[in-house]
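WARN no homologs supplied; continuing
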Amino acid sequence: MRILLADSDVPQVEVVQSFLWDRDFEAEIVRQPLECLLAIEEYLPDIVVIHERFFDGLESGASEWVKFIQEARGPIVIVAASDHLARRLFRTETSCTPVLRSDYPLGDLLKAIDIVRNSNIPNSSTA
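OK structure emitted
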């Protein structure tokens, strides 16, 4: 399974990437929204994990980015301080979009990946 990690905190997200590699996931990192768009087209991830800080400075446009990513790739996992912040920033229904605490609880990340993987949310690689 290919996972795209969208986060601007390089040291923290590299730990997450290594954790996923150790569990036989393919994981790539993007640090900027435009880089994310290119990676979606080239890397073709099954899941995009987006940290709230990825959109620092673009808060008013974060929901449009997330909508575009969902339409282009399907499932996403949001990493945010709270469900409330995720709903405010991304204007998304969190009942169908896993939300993790912003410190990347790694066990919870695996559970969120399983939820998305086992859901009926199609992505362009399976639709």
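DSSP finds five helices and five strands in the chain.
OK
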